[in-house]
Amino acid sequence: MNCRPSCAACCIAPSITSPLPGMPNGKPAGVPCVQLDEALRCKVFGQPERPAFCGGLLPAAEMCGDTREHALVWLARLEQVTRP
């Protein structure tokens, strides 16, 4: 499955606990990553600075659904149920 253009739900909804460029302490859930460009694409995609979490989160029908809103809600729920 390919990412939906202009979605970026996976760059907004989940927290990222590892450092990334511009966010040395990681990213809280619900906060857009500073590495998103104006078209909601990752500026560090494919770069060594990209956190392993990001590379491991692959698009899937269950997560992405038919809309960006579905993906945001699904990922927010996942964030809640996996919170330590």
Could you explain the architecture of this structure?
The model has no long low-confidence stretch (mean pLDDT 94). This protein is mainly α. Helix content is 27%, strand content 0%. The protein is built from 3 helices and no strands. The radius of gyration is 12 Å and the shape is globular.
What layout of secondary structure does this protein have?
Blueprint: H1 52-56, H2 61-64, H3 68-81
Short description:
With 84 residues, the protein is an all-alpha fold. It contains three helices and no strands.
List keywords for this structure.
0% strand, 84 residues, globular, 27% helix, mainly alpha
Terminal Cα separation, in Å?
29 Å
Low-confidence stretches: none
Structural class: mainly alpha
Number of domains: 1
